[in-house]
Structures are given as structure tokens and as C-alpha cells.
């Protein structure tokens, strides 16, 4: 047996030290505190204003959802104190909206280091920074029922300040402020009273070509109409306005969701299905906005059932949707089996949830789909069946109802057969062919969806500014070099072999 060479203890210790160093390097840095993040966001907004680059402002607003969950009054107090100079009037007005922070929690004031007499004192931040901090304070005030009144006052004062300043560099933040204003009215139970304010602001935004604010206000108005079931007015608003194509994906997702609800109520299920698909594709990730993700899929499942399709089972196993769609899964099972009694029992069991989700009236329409599914199953199982047996199996009231429903199913092309009225039965024909105009229509819808997805992806691509000028400059330089070479060859200073690179 060969001897095994043992490694010295010193080498083992060195290997372990290297592993510890690698682990220390791989450890991610600690995230910044909320106050430090607000301060860095204020610096980015200042940079966006000075360089006229709105992408820095959009970068700040993308962190708003995660940041507002970590806010408290102490964090906001510290951020306002650090961002604004000591004797700033804006700082005083912002601190007035915050409750008094206990003395033990206030940061210790440190005298600033002595600076040369030539250096100027810290300047006042841009007005966009003030509006951003007002937005954060407004979101914090909306977390408690007792501060809704104060939030309403702050919302009105912020809107007046935005309209008086009228700065185009403030458009992105103003769109978020309008959403917070709509949320303030909704939580206070006064959403209908804000409609005139939103309509006036929407007209102003459209005249100024402020696309972001216009998209936010259109969504606020649609939500206000749908909250009070004013579907005709919401449809009129959609027909009379144009949603700005440069709006962001979150605004587009909300807009498509609201249009999907309007079209579903108007019995236009194909258009509703298309808009809901767009809303799902453009919506934020499920873990980022779970409530919106669940609301879209609840309506999407009902619309698919109304179109005669059965949703995929994997949809109900999604970790974010599994619990929220449990009642809808029971409805899907009742529709799939064609059992009218099971459908009625499920509908009465989950009626409260369907009312809260505002899908109850749509689910009631599924009764005809359940009956059609049951008739289709019977037509595949029997070549001839009496109308009395159809009443028993589908739990219908009378044979007349059964005859009417079966006749309508035959006329609509759901089944192939005929009714023998004298003998009181239904004779079923062969199974319907799988190829026909319905298949071509389905392929046309899919092809149209893919082409639309391709066009939107091309429109969303971003290209570096003035990149074509570099290519033009390079081509122009190459042409100049060619002219110089040709001139030297003509003058005899350079022969053709030297121009081609010398001897082979």
C-alpha cells in the first residue's frame, strides 16, 4: 500500500485563512439607512435638474415603493434637517407637517467645521427636492386614520405649489404626487369630490404635453368612475382622450386593467381579454405589487371563463395567487364539470368575496356557460337523450327551459344535433370538426398579439445619443485618408506597393 503524504498544519491554516478572506469579500455591504437614501436621492434630483436629464429623477422614483415602507417620522425629520440649510424657510415649513420628535431621538447637533471666508454657505436645494420630501411625508401621513385630515391639507398645498412653480423638470414627481392625492381622497371616502380637480389638471397637462402627469390623471379618473360603477362615463373618457404612448409600464398596466374591466361589463370579452393580457405583461413583479397582480388575475380568470376557455391549472399554484384565487378555482371546477348545482353552491358560498372584488355580476353570467358545458358533455356521451333527463342532469326547472337552452346551443354551434319535439328528445350528431373559421380566428389573434409585442419592444429600445455622428466622423476621416493616399500616388511620393502595405 502506498504511503499517503499528509499536509502540514501550517498549510491547512493558510487555506482556511484564504477561505475566510473570500467569505468576507463575498459578504454584501449593508444597505444604507432610509435617511441616507433620501439624502442621496435628493442629490440625484439636483443632478437631474442641473443636467436636464430626467432619467436621474426616474431612478429616484423607482425606489419610492420600497422606501416608503421604511419611513417613520424620525427618518423624515433627520432627512429634512440634513438636506436643507439651517435657516431655510422651506425646512421650517416641512418640519411643521411632522409631529414633534422626542428629544432623546433627535440627532445631536454638531457645529460645522470652520470654513474659509471665501467659501459660500450651502445653497437652497431645488424646488423638486422639496416636492419629493412632501411626497414622502404625504405617504407617511396616509398610514394612519388619525392623520387623514392633515394629509388632505398637505396634498392641496403641494398641488398649489406645483401649479405655481410650473417647472417641466418637476413633471415626473408631480405625476406621483397626483397619485398620492387620489389615494388621499379615496382613503378619506371623498373620491367623487376630487373628479373636478382631476379633470381640470388633466386638461392642463394635455395642453402642456406633460405625458407622465396626463397618464397618472387619466388612471385616477378611471379609478374614480369605476369605484362608483360609472362605466358609461369611464368609456366616454377613454373614447375622448388618448393615452400618452411615452407613459411608463406601471401606468400602462393600470390603464389596460381599467379598460379590461370596462370591456368585460360591456360584453366585449375579446377586447377585455386582450387588455388584461397587456396589463399582466406590463405589471410590476408579483412580489413587488402583489395586490395589483392578484386583482388582474381575478378578472382575467372570469373573462376567460366567459369566453368559453378554461384557465391553466398552473395559474392557481402560483405562490402569490394560490390563496387569493381559491374561490375562483372552485368556480372554474364547477364550470368545467358543467354542474349547475355545484356552481350555485359555490356562488353562494363565496358571494361576499366576489362582491368585494366587484366580479359578482360577471360570475353570475357564467350560468349559461355552465349549462352549455353540461349540454356539450351530454351530446358527447349520448346519441339520443330525452329532455326530461336533461332537466334532471342539469338541474333545470322544466322541459320547456331545457328545450329552449338546447335549441340555443344548437343554433350557436355549441353542439351538433336536432330536437324531436313530438317525441320529446334530442338527437346528437357527430363530433364537430376541429378545423374551421374559429381556428383561423384564433391564429389571427395570436399573430396580431405577437406582432404588437414586437412593435412595442422595438419602440422601447434605447439608443445612445449622437452615436451616428461618431460613425459619420469616422467615415469622413477614412475618405480624407484615401484622398491623401491618392494624391501622394499621383505626385509620385508613394508607389502602389507601399500603399498596399509593402512587400508580401
**Overall 3D shape:** globular
Cα radius of gyration in angstroms: 34 Å
* Structural class assignment: mainly alpha
Distance between the termini: 64 Å
Number of strands: 3
Q: DSSP strand (E) fraction?
A: under 5%
Order of helices and strands: HHHHHHHHHHHHHHHHHHHHEHHEEHHH
With helices defined by DSSP (H or I, 4 residues minimum), what is the helix count? 25
Low-confidence stretches: 103-121
The spatial strand order of the largest sheet comes to 1-3-2
The share of residues in helices is 55-70%
pLDDT averaged over residues:
78
Largest sheet: 3 strands, antiparallel
Structural notes for this entry:
The chain has 504 residues and is an all-alpha fold. Among the domains are: 33-99 and 125-189, no CATH class; 382-428, Arc Repressor Mutant, subunit A (Orthogonal Bundle), CATH 1.10.10. It contains 25 helices and three strands. The protein has a three-stranded antiparallel beta sheet. β2 (417-420) and β3 form a beta hairpin. The longest helix is centred in the C-terminal third of the chain and has 25 residues, at 467-491. The radius of gyration is 34 Å and the shape is globular.
